UniProtKB/TrEMBL annotation:
It catalyses: 8-oxo-dGTP + H2O = 8-oxo-dGMP + diphosphate + H(+). Gene3D superfamilies: Nucleoside Triphosphate Pyrophosphohydrolase. The lineage of its organism: Eukaryota, Fungi, Dikarya, Basidiomycota, Ustilaginomycotina. This is 8-oxo-dGTP diphosphatase. It comes from the Eukaryota.
Length: 163
């Protein structure tokens, strides 16, 4: 007999900012060395993935689009207003977890996003801390399982913010 299955869509923001020199030149091209990404460190007492780094986001609630869920999650977790810069999912991972007689299938979708207003400062409302990290430094942090391929693609430059 198979376990009942629950499907949970999750969205994550690849929340980026252009390096200051590019912003001053009003450049619209984001090379792999010209931007940082916002990441957060999960609480040490989190039931899953404690003390691991992650990209901000969370579960999509019923009736929400992915962009609406990202906007809500970033407001709740970071106290910032964002805009999804490209409605095309740039990376996805899928995994299963069985607990308490239920199998849960997670689908995690990643989207590019930027701060909607200048001067906003992300706060660690739902994590230990947040940090803006250059793509090279992502590899020096321990991320939640499944993010390895995304981090490799970001480091190679095969995934980069929209121009």
């Amino acid at each position: 007999m198979s376990l009942p299955t629950r499907i949970v869509p999750v969205v994550c923001a690849l929340l980026y900012r252009l390096k200051q020199a590019d912003e001053e030149r009003h450049s619209v091209t984001a090379s792999k060395s010209a931007y940082d990404l916002l990441v957060s460190l999960r609480h040490e007492d989190a039931s899953n993935f404690a003390n691991l780094w992650e990209f901000p986001g969370g579960k999509v609630e019923e009736g929400e689009t992915h962009a609406q869920a990202l906007t809500r999650e970033c407001r709740e977790e970071l106290d910032v207003h964002i805009e999804v810069t490209d409605n095309k999912c740039v990376h996805a991972i899928h995994f299963e977890k069985s607990e308490e007689g239920v199998r849960t299938q997670y689908s995690v979708f990643f989207y590019w996003a930027r701060m909607k207003f200048d001067g906003q400062v992300a706060k660690a409302l739902a994590s230990q801390k947040v940090a803006w990290v250059h793509y090279d430094d992502l590899k020096t942090r321990e991320f939640c399982p499944g993010d390895e391929t995304l981090i490799e693609e970001l480091a190679k430059g095969s995934i980069a913010p929209p121009a």
